[in-house]
Each structure stands twice: as structure tokens, then as C-alpha cells.
Write a structure and sequence with these properties.
heterodimer, A: mainly alpha, two-stranded antiparallel ribbon, 22 helices, elongated, B: mainly alpha, three-stranded antiparallel beta sheet, 3 strands, 72% helix, globular
């Protein structure tokens, strides 16, 4: 019986010690918190927390599953290891990374490019639904903003702005996520994608002109449906250059809440980029003037024309189709009737051809004002000179 | 005040006559306050794109508050307008002491007549040193112009203002484009009124060398004998002739009344000056 028990020990003696490193072999050294190496004068920790790794998504795997080049090492191994090849298992994300802007093959400036570990971590990688994961919805902006909030990084990459993170935080998506803690809010990768992120000028990008509305529509489905049947949506479908997409009016990283006064008083600024003349005539009108003074209740573009549902005046469904005008005006002016709708909201009294009566009325006012001020201006000036002389004579 | 007047004041006890009774002064006070209120709350809207306008509206408690003040001052305007109409009717029916047409085209009426036209020409000739200064009566031609400017202004600005205040009501029997007309009239008439009052009226009445810095007759109601003789010789002569002068004799303005007049007058100046700078600045910017 004793002899039988010795057999395994004999094996141990015969077989040369540890042909491959086991995970526990690794921990023999790497559980030492003070274990470091020096690279170009910098101390780099080589400590691996057994607990953290054990709880990570890769916790059941062995060190050598990823650090393949040390699998054959005996006891001690080369100081410099080959980079871990996540793509050996994760081939789909790896392929996607290869075509995205973060790939050295795509990026124009090849510094600061993130590797898997920059976003996912190393020994502490957790599944996406784990609240402590770097790619959990609430954490995604933090992860991306490690680089994208940095002015230094931005300065090395033309076309990249370091404002995107603060803009995002100030916008509705950021507020809902960060202040309200709601994970359904859009985070970076919801719009930009994850591994295959492409710049907006690339037609395949999720945020390109052709795709951005669909991207927004993944959440705002109803709005995009309405928009698609609007005059803007039809123009966009026809491939017209000037057709607006969601960010044309709502911005991109900072998407403000449309119900806020701040947004309401700046609607004209959003439309004026294309509709110059209409914006100018609106700003000259009473509605435009009080809006300009910050009165959000006054009618601005979308109150009469609609927002996502803007249609041509000829369309019977349009808010400004003659058949619907009474209803549109009455939304703010209860009791308004057909007479009321004869008001010309975009009147231009400088335009003699289109609004002759208003033009000549305005001209008459200009003549009246100039006449009065010219006569009394001269009258006053002459009087002043004469009266000065008289006063002087009196004193003398 | 000239040295001459000061000498007269101290040497002999000067005689004072009532030119404007309480009612006149009260209506003028209503005009000052409501007019300044209207201009201050209205002009920022006319020049809403300037930074000044935004700041002014901000300190008035926002454009909504400014709009409220504007409407309150509008109501005061209608109030003094009708108070004056009642007074004018009362004058014509009760106070008038001469036949209607004689009064209407005479010196105690505001209606401009041939004498006023002659005075305009005569005054202009005097400016150019080509004649004597015309002898003025109780109301000069520029005072009549001011008076009818208010009438015309309240009519045009007031009615167009009501249109813009109650558009739904007026659209019951008027087409909507009257609001386009109303906004042009309201806005440009207001510019005329403010520009006129804060420059021409201020100069004609207060700032010209003979009156500088302030003619306080409208505030105290009292005019000195010397001023009456010099400024309105025809009225003086007529009152003497008809033996009515003594009935207008009154006490000299007290120090408190004089001080109060100056406070009110200079405050109105100050506001007017601020507004005229704002208007000129904004108008020039708009042209630019």
C-alpha cells in the first residue's frame, strides 16, 4: 500500500519540473504588490490582483491563455512579453477595429490610438452589463473621455475637439445619463458605434449624413418616421445637399431639450442657416422681436410651420395650408378666425413689389419723420445761434 | 436765468400770474410719466437686436414685465387723453367768454390760424437777422405743434396699440393685415414722438438760451410779469387792456415748489437723454 502511494512521487521525480507555467506559478511572483519593472526609466507595476482577476470575465482562464508566449517558459520568463492578442478569440470585434478610425491602418495620425485594454481594461475586464464595467452604459462617457476630453490629445489630431465631453454633459443625453442616472440615454457608442467607429465624413459612418437620422431613430423612432414624410425628409431622401438632418437643428454632442425656453427662443437661429430671408422678415416682426428679447411663448418658426412635420403650404396636411391656418393661429390666439389669418407674418415693408401698400406706408412714414426732423432741426439750430447772440448782447 | 431777471427779483417785488392751473399741470405730469414709461418699455422691442435693448429689458424685469408696464402706461395715456377732451368740452361750454368762432381762431384756442403762419415766417426771419422777433400770444406756433403732435400721436399710436393689444377682437371686423399696418404706424410714430420730444420739445421749451436750463412754468404753473411781457407780449397787452391781469395774479412759487419742479424736470431730461442716445445709436447701427 505504501509503495502504491509513492508512485506519483516517483513521477514527480522523473518528469522535469513544470514544463508549462500554471496560473499559480504566475501568482508566485505576480501577487507581490511591489513587483515592478523599469521601462525607459518609468516603474511599471507587474502586480496582478488574484481576486480581481478571479472575478473578471476571464477569471476561469489561465494566464498563459492570453500570454501565450510565456506558456513554454520555465519558471522565469523573458522580461518583455508579446502584446496579448485578444483577436485570437474575439475575432469579430478585432476585424471591426481594423476598419474603424482607431485602427492604425485608418487613422491619419497614428499616436494615442486605443488598444482593447484602453477601453476594456486588462486583468479586470467585466461583462458589459456589470455596473463596474468600463463599458457599462453609465461608464462609457468616462471611458471615451479619458482621451476625448484631453486638449493635448486633440491638439495632435486635426478635426478632433476636446469639447465633445463637456458638450455631451451639458446636453440632454448627458443630463439624463449623468444627473438622472438613466441608462437608456444615448452614450458615445450608441451613436458612434464601438469597434468600427468611423468619422462623420465617411458615408458608412453611423453619424454620416446618410445614416445619422437612422441612428437617432433607433431611439427616436416616431420622430424620424414623422420627419421622413416631411418636406425636409423628402428632400433628404432625394439626396438634396441642403436637406437638414437631425443634428442640423438639434446639434450633435450637446442636444438641448426642445421644450426649454433657451431652445425655443433660438429656433430661428437654427432655421436661418438656410432660410435667410424668412428669418430676417420674422425677426423684424412683432413675434420675432419679442422672441429676440427672450420671450419663449411668442410664436417662432416651429409654432406655425411645425418641427419634424413641416410640409409645403400646398400640402393639405401642412399647418400653414389655408384650411389649417385658423387652427394654427388659434393655438396661441384663441378665438382667431379667418380674418385673423390675413395677417402677413413675414411681411417685408422694404419690398415694393410684393407688399406695395406696406412699402408706401413705410415710405410715407420715413418722409414724415425726415420732414419733421429736418424742419425742426434747422429751426432749432438757427434759433439756438440767434438766441445765443441775443443773450450775449444783453450781457454786454 | 439772466442777470437782468435776478436784479428784478431782488429790487422790486415781482408780480406772478397763473398760466397753468392744477388740472393742466396734473395732465402734463401724467404725460411725462406715461410717455417715459412707454418709450423705455417700447424702444427695446423696436431695437431688440441690440445688446442695450436686452440689458434694458433685463433690468425692467424681462420683456413680459416691460410689456405689462407698456400697457399700463398706454392706459394712462388714454386716461389723460380723455381727461383733456372732457376739459376741452368743459372749456368750450362753460369757461369760454367769447363767441365760439372768435374763440376758435383766437389766441385762447390751440387751433393754428393765419397769425401762426406769420409767426413761423417772422420767427425764421428773426433767426436770420432780417427782422424783429414776432410778438407771441398765449400759445406760440411751436406750442400748438406740440399740442397737436400729442393729439395725432395718441390717435395713431394709441389706436394701433389697441389693435396690437387685442388682435383677436379687432380681427372680428377687420382683415389681419391691419396688424401689419398697425406695427409700422405704432413703431415709426413712436420713433417720431420720442425723437421729437427728447430733442425739439426739450430745446424749444427748456434748453434754448433764454430758458436754459429749465422753464418751470409747466411745473409751478406760475409765470413772472417780466417773462409774460417778454415772451407773450400780445397776451400781456390784451389782459391789461381787458383788465383781466389782476384776476390771474398769484403768489410767487415757493422754494419747495421750485425745487420739486427742478427734480421732476431734470429727472425727465435724464431719462430722455438716455433714450435719445439709445435711439440714435441703435438707428445708426440698423442703417449700418
Amino acid at each position: 500500500m505504501r509503495q502504491i502511494l509513492f508512485i506519483p512521487l516517483i513521477f514527480l521525480l522523473i518528469v522535469p519540473p513544470a514544463a508549462a507555467l500554471t496560473t499559480s506559478d504566475c501568482y508566485d511572483c505576480h501577487s507581490d504588490e511591489d513587483l515592478t519593472k523599469s521601462v525607459a526609466g518609468a516603474e511599471i507595476s507587474l502586480f496582478v490582483d488574484e481576486n480581481v482577476f478571479g472575478q473578471s470575465i476571464h477569471g476561469d482562464m489561465d494566464c498563459t491563455d492570453c500570454h501565450e508566449d510565456v506558456a513554454d517558459a520555465e519558471d522565469e520568463h523573458e522580461e518583455i512579453l508579446e502584446p496579448v492578442q485578444c483577436g485570437n478569440c474575439h475575432d469579430d470585434p478585432m476585424d471591426a477595429m481594423g476598419v474603424g478610425i482607431h485602427s492604425p491602418d485608418v487613422a491619419q495620425v497614428k499616436t494615442d490610438l486605443p488598444t482593447c485594454a484602453h477601453c476594456h481594461g486588462k486583468h479586470d475586464i467585466l461583462p458589459v452589463e456589470n455596473v463596474r464595467s468600463t463599458i457599462y452604459d453609465l461608464k462609457v462617457p468616462n471611458t471615451c473621455c479619458q482621451c476625448h476630453a484631453s486638449e493635448e490629445v486633440a491638439s495632435r489630431h486635426p478635426g478632433i475637439s476636446s469639447d465633445v465631453c463637456s458638450e455631451y454633459e451639458a446636453g440632454m443625453h448627458g443630463i439624463v445619463l449623468i444627473k438622472s442616472g438613466m441608462i437608456f440615454s444615448a452614450v458615445c457608442n450608441d451613436c458612434h458605434g464601438s469597434h468600427d467607429i468611423l468619422p462623420a465624413d465617411n458615408p458608412s459612418s453611423k453619424v454620416s449624413r446618410t445614416n445619422i437620422n437612422d441612428t437617432c431613430g433607433t431611439c427616436h423612432a416616431g420622430i424620424v418616421q414623422t420627419y421622413n414624410s416631411s418636406i425636409h425628409g423628402k428632400l433628404l431622401a432625394e439626396g438634396k445637399e441642403e436637406a437638414p438632418t437631425c443634428p442640423s437643428c438639434h446639434g450633435n454632442h450637446r442636444v438641448d431639450r426642445a421644450m426649454d425656453d433657451q431652445f425655443q427662443v433660438s429656433v430661428t437661429d437654427r432655421c436661418s442657416g438656410c432660410h435667410h430671408e424668412e428669418s430676417d422678415t420674422f425677426r423684424d416682426s412683432y413675434h420675432g422681436q419679442v422672441t429676440g428679447m427672450g420671450y419663449a411663448q411668442a410664436a417662432q418658426c416651429s409654432d406655425c410651420h411645425g418641427a419634424h412635420n413641416i410640409l409645403s403650404k400646398e400640402d393639405p396636411l401642412s399647418k400653414i395650408h389655408p384650411a389649417n391656418l385658423v387652427e394654427t393661429c388659434a393655438a396661441c390666439h384663441p378665438g382667431a378666425g379667418v380674418n385673423f389669418t390675413m395677417y402677413i407674418p413675414h411681411a417685408d415693408y422694404h419690398d415694393a413689389e410684393r407688399y406695395p401698400y406696406l412699402y408706401y406706408l413705410y415710405l410715407a412714414m420715413v418722409i414724415l419723420l425726415s420732414g419733421v426732423f429736418t424742419f425742426f432741426g434747422i429751426h432749432t439750430l438757427l434759433w439756438f445761434i440767434r438766441a445765443q447772440k441775443e443773450e450775449k448782447n444783453k450781457r454786454a | 436765468m439772466s442777470e437782468h431777471t435776478q436784479v428784478a427779483n431782488t429790487e422790486a417785488e415781482e408780480r406772478w400770474y397763473m398760466r397753468f392751473v392744477y388740472y393742466h399741470r396734473f395732465l402734463h405730469a401724467l404725460i411725462i410719466t406715461s410717455f417715459l414709461g412707454l418709450v423705455f418699455t417700447g424702444m427695446p422691442l423696436k431695437f431688440s437686436e441690440t445688446g442695450w435693448a436686452q440689458t434694458m429689458a433685463h433690468y425692467m424685469g424681462g420683456i413680459q414685465t416691460a410689456g405689462f408696464i407698456h400697457r399700463v402706461c398706454g392706459v394712462i395715456t388714454f386716461l389723460y387723453f380723455f381727461l383733456h377732451i372732457f376739459y376741452a368740452l368743459y372749456y368750450v361750454i362753460k369757461l369760454r367768454d367769447e363767441p365760439f368762432f372768435k374763440w376758435l381762431f383766437g389766441p385762447n384756442s390751440m387751433v393754428p390760424w393765419i397769425k401762426d403762419l406769420e409767426d413761423v415766417v417772422g420767427h425764421l426771419r428773426w433767426f436770420l437777422g432780417k427782422g424783429e422777433r414776432p410778438k407771441f400770444d398765449r400759445y406760440t406756433y411751436w406750442e400748438k405743434f406740440d399740442y397737436f403732435a400729442v393729439f395725432w400721436g395718441v390717435g395713431i399710436i394709441g389706436i394701433s396699440g389697441l389693435f396690437l393689444w387685442f388682435p383677436v377682437f379687432f380681427s372680428k371686423f377687420l382683415p389681419g393685415w391691419v396688424f401689419n399696418v398697425a406695427i409700422i404706424l405704432h413703431s415709426d410714430e413712436a420713433l417720431l414722438a420720442a425723437g421729437f420730444i427728447f430733442t425739439i420739445h426739450f430745446f424749444n421749451t427748456h434748453l434754448r438760451p433764454e430758458k436754459f436750463p429749465l422753464d418751470d412754468v409747466i411745473f409751478t404753473g406760475r409765470i413772472s410779469e417780466e417773462e409774460l411781457m417778454h415772451e407773450r407780449p400780445l397776451e400781456y397787452e390784451r389782459l391789461v387792456q381787458k383788465g383781466k391781469l389782476e384776476s390771474l395774479r398769484t403768489t410767487p412759487p415757493t422754494k419747495t415748489l421750485k425745487l420739486w419742479s427742478r427734480i421732476v424736470g431734470f429727472t425727465a431730461y435724464g431719462f430722455g437723454l438716455v433714450m435719445i442716445i439709445f435711439i440714435v445709436y441703435s438707428a445708426l447701427r440698423e442703417i449700418h
